[in-house]
């Protein structure tokens, strides 16, 4: 069966720094939730029509069946795992590549050998990993790490950046996809002023209203090759370095290889850097960035 013809669709994909990674799937009137309570090394979700090549490669593989038309492929030593290791550093932890196809999005993530929980309408159970069904292959989600071919450009208006006062850093607290929309919350957290008093920093929200073709994110410490590119001060002298648009994108080229053809409409690759996550978004629409209202009153005057 073609994944596009499946009865299961993805409603929500949510990453919360303090809560973990969460997926909600819908089949008719039923809702299923997949919970990765730990901290995944990386997450990737793409519009299903953009993963034709992956679907063809997995046609002869046996998935782990979770429910009728709801299943999961589990891999080891795949292209996605190799991309993550090449972009960061090798370690001794066994990394597992999970693939969940649905009618509208294919969701993938890399985690450890402890499988995610599946929450059914009236019960919850742990996914069982059958060693005989583990798939391998460096062609599976074989993204490029040749970032030196790309060009990174700040796309936020300078006057807006001056108002934002983000010189003290930002971290991405929440990333939520729901019913076609993507929201990324950036937060400065608790800060300390020159007098040693603590206060709540600024919050900003990035919104994509539609047209999400692919989203990829990973811990910023796992994107070392990308950070090395930005150390070339002759090429890059960012004023803030948080909101970037990527020209000559390797991510878009890889998506077009996966879908088997060029995009008919214009798509753009946006990259959001933070002290916690690096997020890449390929979208047909431009994002909006807003500063949220927040009570910046002092919360402590202790100097710890």
Write a structural description.
The protein is mainly beta. The chain has two domains: 3-137, no CATH class; 147-300, no CATH class. Helices cover 13% and strands 43% of the residues. Strands 4, 5, 6, 7, 8, 11, 12, 18, 19, 20 and 21 form an eleven-stranded mixed β-sheet that branches. Strands 10-9-3-2-1-13-14-17-22 form a nine-stranded antiparallel β-sheet, with no helix packed on it. A three-stranded antiparallel β-sheet has the order 15-16-23, with no helix packed on it. A hairpin with a 2-residue loop joins strand 13 (171-178) and strand 14.
How far apart lie the N and C ends? 59 Å
Structural class: mainly beta
Helix content: 10-25%
Low-confidence stretches: 299-304
Q: Which geometry do the CA atoms define?
A: globular
Please tag this protein with its features.
304 residues, mainly beta, 11-stranded mixed beta sheet, 5 helices, 13% helix, globular
Q: What order do the helices and strands come in, and which of them pair?
A:
Blueprint: E1 8-16, E2 20-27, E3 30-36, E4 42-47, H1 52-57, E5 64-67, E6 70-78, H2 79-87, E7 96-101, E8 105-111, E9 117-119, E10 124-126, E11 135-137, E12 151-154, H3 158-164, E13 171-178, E14 181-187, E15 190-192, E16 198-200, E17 203-208, E18 212-219, H4 224-230, E19 243-247, H5 250-259, E20 268-273, E21 277-283, E22 288-292, E23 298-300
Parallel strand pairs: 6-11
Antiparallel strand pairs: 1-2, 1-13, 2-3, 3-9, 4-8, 4-18, 5-6, 6-7, 7-8, 9-10, 12-19, 13-14, 14-17, 15-16, 16-23, 17-22, 18-21, 19-20, 20-21
């Amino acid at each position: 069966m073609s994944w596009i013809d499946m009865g299961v669709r993805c409603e929500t994909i949510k990453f919360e720094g303090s809560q973990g990674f969460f997926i909600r799937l819908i089949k008719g009137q039923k809702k299923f939730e997949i919970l990765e309570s730990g901290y995944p090394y990386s997450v990737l979700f793409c519009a299903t029509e953009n993963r034709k090549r992956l679907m063809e490669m997995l046609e002869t593989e046996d998935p782990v069946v979770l429910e009728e038309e709801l299943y999961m492929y589990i891999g080891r030593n795949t292209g996605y795992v190799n991309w993550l290791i090449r972009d960061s550093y090798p370690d001794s932890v066994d990394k597992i590549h999970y693939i969940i196809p649905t009618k509208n999005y294919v969701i993938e993530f890399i985690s450890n050998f402890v499988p995610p929980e599946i929450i059914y309408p009236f019960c919850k159970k742990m996914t069982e990993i059958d060693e005989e069904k583990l798939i391998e292959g460096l062609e599976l989600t074989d993204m490029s790490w040749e970032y030196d071919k790309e060009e990174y450009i700040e796309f936020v208006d300078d006057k807006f950046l001056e108002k934002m006062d983000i010189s003290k850093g930002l971290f991405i607290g929440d990333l939520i996809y729901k019913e076609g929309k993507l929201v990324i919350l950036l937060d400065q957290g608790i800060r300390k002023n020159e007098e040693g008093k603590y206060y709540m920093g600024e919050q900003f929200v990035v919104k994509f209203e539609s047209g999400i073709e692919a989203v990829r994110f990973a811990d910023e410490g796992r994107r070392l090759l990308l950070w090395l590119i930005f150390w070339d001060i002759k090429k890059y002298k960012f004023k803030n370095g948080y909101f970037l648009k990527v020209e000559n994108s390797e991510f878009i080229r890889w998506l077009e290889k996966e879908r088997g053809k060029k995009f008919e409409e214009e798509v753009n690759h946006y990259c959001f850097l933070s002290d916690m996550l690096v997020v890449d978004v390929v979208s047909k629409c431009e994002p909006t960035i807003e500063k949220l209202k927040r009570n910046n009153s002092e919360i402590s005057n202790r100097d710890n």
